[in-house]
Amino acid sequence: MSDALQTGMFYGKTQRRFELGGIVLTEITHSCGRKLPRHTHESAYFGLLLAGSYSEKCTHRAAEYEPFTMGFHPPSLTHSDEVGTCGSRMFCVELRNTYLSRTREFLTAPQFVCDLCASELTWLGLRLYRSFSGETLGALELEELCDDMLEHVSGSRISEETSLPRWLERARELLHESYRESLTLEQIAAQVGVHPIHLSRVFRKRHGCTMAEFINRLRVQFACRALAAGWADLASVASEAGFADQSHLGRVFKSCTGQTPGRFRSFFHSQLASR
After folding, report:
1. What angle do CA 149, 67, 74 make, to 5 degrees?
2. Pairwise CA distance, residues 150 & 148, whole Å
């Protein structure tokens, strides 16, 4: 016999949880070592170990996890786990069937994958965790990162584009037109008439960034213009540019420009004053 855990349920203490579009993000901690009973999870999920140690056994595989390793589990996989003596902190990304169902046209059923140490998938998971913990995660970034993660553990039937498709240009135009709004991957894909996974993959390949990153660059560009034009309140600039709040503006602005919005504004106006 084994326990059956519904989506969002884990052994250990839940530190925070977030759900959007059939994707459930949960951070779980164990304060000390313990053996967990055999169990299954209702939904497929990625597990990224952030701290401590963790071991896992299922019918055909065993894995030892160290910090910054990730594993993927298909739904209803029976396994048993043991938390190391110092405890653990885990970031889990669950994919409900409502989310998985829209990927099946392009991705074959993913299989159990353990101990993805230092793979690109691990860095995608860390990017997702950073936005999750910073409370800046939007629908578009969440969908793109999860689609990319799932593609790494699935067979793919996505065909290559040999020329620049018109729908990709239209997607880029939509981002320019609507970057100050809250967009989702499905909304953009529906407007240009392609599958969301195909859109995300081709856009990333052609432009060297995700659509969420592209939008953030456009928002920072808008903020630069507003700050250069005068001494606008930073909270107002953040809202007008499409950021969640001033703190979100500050983090993204610094990652793009290397300086805070306040420093950028002061420097820009000091240069104008000296001429």
Report:
1. 40
2. 5
pLDDT of residue 50: 92
The token duo for 31 is 């304060």
| Residue 202 pLDDT > 60 | yes
Considering Cα of 198, then 104, then 65, then 9, what sign does the dihedral take?
positive
Q: Are 113 and 154 a contacting pair, CB within 8 Å?
A: no
Per the structure block, which two tokens stand in for 173? 């135009």
Strands 79-95, 34-35: parallel, antiparallel or unpaired by DSSP?
Answer: antiparallel
Sequence letter at residue 122: T
d(CA 12, CA 83): 10
Residue bearing tokens 């969301």? 196
Q: What is the pTM of this model?
A: 0.80
Planar angle of CA 84, 121, 139, nearest 5 degrees: 105
Please name which of 165, 68, 189 lies closest in space to residue 119, comparing C-alpha atoms. Answer: 68
pLDDT at 114 exceeding the cut of 80? no
Q: Which amino acid is at 151?
A: E
Using CB atoms within 10 Å of the CB of residue 145, give its burial: 0 to 12 exposed, 13 to 18 middle, 19+ buried.
buried
